[in-house]
Amino acid sequence: MGKALKSVVFVVLLCLMAQGGWAWAAIMSDDISPQPATTNIGVTANDLLTLQDQLNNLKQQVSLASNYTQLEGAQDLAQTLIQDVDRLTASILPAQAQLQAQLNVLGPVPLDENPLVSSAISTQRAALSEQKDKVDGYLKTLAVLKQSAADLITQIAGIRRSLLEAEVTQQTRSILNPEFWSPLFDLPSDDYQRFAALLQQLEVTHQLAWQPGQRLFTVILLLLALAVWTVGRRWAGRGLAWLCIHRMPEGRLRRSALALASVLATVLSASIAIQLLHYVGTRQIPYTPLVADLAQYLEKLAYTCVLITGLSRALLSIKHPSWRLPDISDPVALAMAPYPIWLAGVLLVLVTLVQMSNVTGMSAGVVMFGRGIVALAVTLILGSLLLRVTKVRRAMAIAGDLPQSAGTLTGLIYAFVAGALVVSMLALLTGYVTMARFITYELVWIFIIFSGFYLLTQLHVDTCDYVFSPKSPPGKGFKQMLGISNPRLEQICTVLSGGGRAALILIAVIALFVGGVGTTLSQLVTNTLNILGGEGLRKFNIVPDNLMHALLALVIGIYLIRTFRRWLDNEFLPKTEMDPGMCASLSTLFANLGYAAVVLLTLSSLGIKWTNLAWIVSALSVGIGFGLQEIVKNFISGLILLTERPVKVGDLISISGVEGDIRRINVRATEIQLSDRSIMIVPNSHLISQNLRNVTLGGSAQGVVTLELLLPLDIDPEQVQNLLLEAYTVHEGILEKPAPYVRFSQLKPEGITLTITGYVASPRTVGAIKSELLFEILKRLGAAGIELAKSPTTP
């Protein structure tokens, strides 16, 4: 029994050990053979197929377009497609970076490891490589789609340009021709059916919004939209005006802010009201494609009309004349006030009807009739505005209330608008309806751009004037932080104000060409950035983040250099044993090197690669070879003067017959102060290449006071010698060592010449001591009864 029991126990232990070994093997197998982790890409192949289908449909739509208007939405859809591609690309890039990082962690497959380990790493690496290849493929496909969409936008722009040129130069019926007005009384049957189909789709949307159970909610939404546009706009305007009055500083900046607040209140309230109306029509089912195209254009048209009324209200400021930005008298402003509202209302109604004919594809006669009506209405409204303003100004001139004559810019604007209206009316009378419509639309668009950027320019200028004013809190803060004077602060204000104004004018000019009536703010910004961020700027890799970093690097760098230079001049260098000239040279050299480093750091922060500046270097090399060689030579000479220091600040030098003290050594030239306290500017290269006498080099130079006296032959030379030596000796400015001495210089029939020489501590005191000695010697000679000999007159 004992042996049997021992055998059973032994077998059980073996089984337990075997089971444990299998479990451990299983654990080890799990450790070395993990399942490859999958990365969530966030994009599927169906998403790419959807984008490709959208692009193909858009290309087909462009190929079937027959007029300029049909291509207005195609360019917007292509731009939206590019934004979708960018969004998907941005969502994939993190996954690509993650997969690449995982592959870098795995590294190559180890050859000397356990076969199980090598196999597991190979499997995982293959899985990760497969996922990364898939992501790379998606990114390449998206890049191709984006390039195709960008090419399509370029093609659409070319087609639109060609169609516009063809339509503008196409002559149709004149407004004087009765057949031009025939669509108003006898609409063709095909066009009537198309218009009826659109009305039927609109009726379906209307019935869904007013079906039982939805009427109350529809009424609430409509009333809410009306309240937002009326009461909400008024409250928003008052609220923003209160903020400007109580939070903005008194002056021009507050006035500009009030004008901007008026525009913002109008645009924001209109935006909310339009979105509510859009929700009313689409909360049940989406619009049909035909109604969706019409609604999209009408939304743009509504924003255009809102901008017309909002900008006019802000600039004319009828209720608060003191808030008015342009120099317009009250009678003229009152006369102009109703016309923007009439213009916006006419555009909203007539262009809506015209767009309904465009989206339904009505006949050319109906489309031309709609364009002609719009052009005629806008021409009459704007022409009436000009006549009304002219009449008011003439009445004010007769009454003597006209403050001053109109400026040049005002006269040019008046002449331009009047000429455009005359051309538009002539085009309508001669049958060039599309040309007239184009001119009137451009006039409306120019008004929106001109008014908007005028407001922004005034706001920018007033902001700069306040922020950098020496009397304002921000200006005082900048003075304290940067350690700059009032004139320098005013210079910064002038540069920033002028630069911002030039940038706004450039953007306004670009906006005139990339937009038009019906262009939204997002489209305008996108198109403008596409031009400003073209291929030429992309080569320099200038992006907003880099601009911010470069600005910070420039401001902080200049501040640090100025601070450290003040510390050197006021604290560190005065405590050293260096002379003042050496201290000034070191301070100037440090500032020059620091500013050069700041410039390099700023360019680096902009992301500019030096390879992209090769053309600048080439241009500089040519310029140096011709016109800049003197500047470069003086710059190098200035560095030599600051390093080798043959002359330094405070030295008394003599060069080209000019003697004076060195006051400052700049990068290009050196300032020398003459004896009459005037400043002479000498190029640095002259101090290096010409013979120069440094009187005070070494710091131990002594001045020499030498006088020559012509005396009669009958004097006692020894008596005169003793008299001269006594005069020199008793003077406190003459040094004892070397001692003064008298020499018998010449013996002539007209007399003898004695020369007396003495030394002084500094060459700068020679003139004053020499004058004092002459007075003293003449006094002693007169007391001794000795007269100076007269030199023979020259025949």
TrEMBL record:
Chief location of this protein within or outside the cell: membrane
GO cellular component annotations of the record: plasma membrane
One example GO MF annotation: mechanosensitive monoatomic ion channel activity
Mechanosensitive ion channel MscS C-terminal domain: residues covered: 713-788
Pfam families hit by this protein: DUF3772, MS_channel_2nd, MS_channel_3rd
Protein localization: Cell membrane
SUPFAM superfamilies reported in the protein's UniProt record: Mechanosensitive channel protein MscS (YggB), C-terminal domain (SSF82689), Mechanosensitive channel protein MscS (YggB), transmembrane region (SSF82861), Sm-like ribonucleoproteins (SSF50182)
Identification of the protein by name: Mechanosensitive ion channel family protein
Protein species of origin: Pseudomonas vancouverensis
